[in-house]
Amino acid sequence: MRVIETTAELMAARDGIAGSVGFVPTMGALHEGHLSLIRRAKEENGFVIVSIFVNPTQFLEGEDLDKYPRKIEADMQICKRAGVDILFMPTPGIMYERDELAVMAPATMGYILEGNRRPGHFDGMLQVVMKLLNLANPTAAYFGKKDAQQLALIMQMARTYFLRCRIVPCEIVRDGSGLALSSRNVYLSPEEKQRALSLSRSLKRATKMVMTGERSSQKIEAVMREILENETDIEYVEIVDRAFRPLEEVEIGNTIILVAAWVGTTRLIDNLWI
Ligand code: AMP
User: Fold this and answer.
1) Whose CA is closest to atom 6 on ligand 1?
2) Probe ligand 1: pick from 23, 26, 132, 259, max atoms within 8 Å of CB?
3) Which of 189, 80, 203, 98 minimizes the C-alpha distance to 145?
């Protein structure tokens, strides 16, 4: 595995690769969720590039940029073992110049749900993903459904800017108890982890309701809120279609149920695609 820290070196290395390239951008502190993306990239491409970059522009003032978990040594081992060909680990100074041109999230999608709670977050995320896609120039890039709105925005960016790479959505990976894996789970105490399970539990209950014929978003949301409210501080529970428009009735094959909630000082998100 080659570890690369500069953009010039990455572009030169990329130019030397023939055949298909799979790319997995991450912020590190790698877990099985990231690994599932890497494995899929390996299966579908001759060559795999992973990036680890804790992107400062997608963190808002007062968010956890400084304490975001960084585990460089362990991450390098994980990537090596997974058969990653290139690990790109730039610094902010390498990725950004001062007063640079910006990519912006669209007015609606960028500022509802996650974008409403974290205004500007998606601008920073899209900016860095655009840069990384141009640098790695992949055949296919792999993103988790865990960050559903992020995924939708990246797909839109690929459309808007006529990006050539395929954007591949990947399933959410959970631990044995149902908790969606996240680098931020390390912030949770054992007691908070128990409370965090209410997110996946509420989504499981929603699945059951839909399976037994319930379609009313209002009723499903109410039951989910009941499960969540004793354990968490709910930010939102929303039932939307794949374009993130609110749905009054669940439409099988076109629905995402989204949850964001605080457990102590940790903000968690989870979702379910129906
Ligand atoms: P992050 O390092 O949190 O920025 O995540 C990097 C990529 O991994 C993103 O595409 C995430 O959606 C994806 N990812 C994070 N957690 C999971 C998970 N539990 N299951 C599947 N994909 C995930």
Assistant:
1) 26
2) 26
3) 203
- At 171, list the tokens: 């399933």
Beta strand extents in 96-228 (DSSP E only): 140-144, 166-170
Name the residue at shortest CA distance from atom 7 of ligand 1: 26
Mean pLDDT of all residues in 233-237? 98
| Catalytic site includes residue 34 | yes
Q: How many CB atoms lie within 10 A of CB 132?
A: 23
Q: How far is CA 128 from the centre of its chain?
A: 13
Beta bridge mates, 142: 168
For ligand 1, whether the C-beta of 27 sits within 6 Å is yes
- Domains, the chain, in order of start with CATH, read 2-170 (3.40.50.620), 183-268 (3.30.1300.10)
Sort residue 205 into left (φ over 0), alpha (ψ -120 to 50) or beta: alpha
Taking the CB of residue 178, how many other CB atoms lie within 10 A of it? 15
- pLDDT, tens digit, for every residue of 182-203? 999 999 999 999 999 999 999 9
Q: How many angstroms separate the alpha carbon of residue 72 from the centre of ligand 1? A: 17
pLDDT tens digit sequence for 70-127:
999 999 999 999 999 999 999 999 999 999 999 999 999 999 999 999 999 999 999 9
Please choose from 122, 133, 147, 187 the residue to mutate so as to test ligand 1's pocket, defined by most ligand atoms within 8 A of CB.
Answer: 147
List, in sequence order, every beta strand (DSSP E) within the chain: 2-4, 21-26, 47-52, 86-88, 140-144, 166-170, 233-241, 255-263, 266-273
How far is 208 from 122, CA to CA, in rounded Å? 32
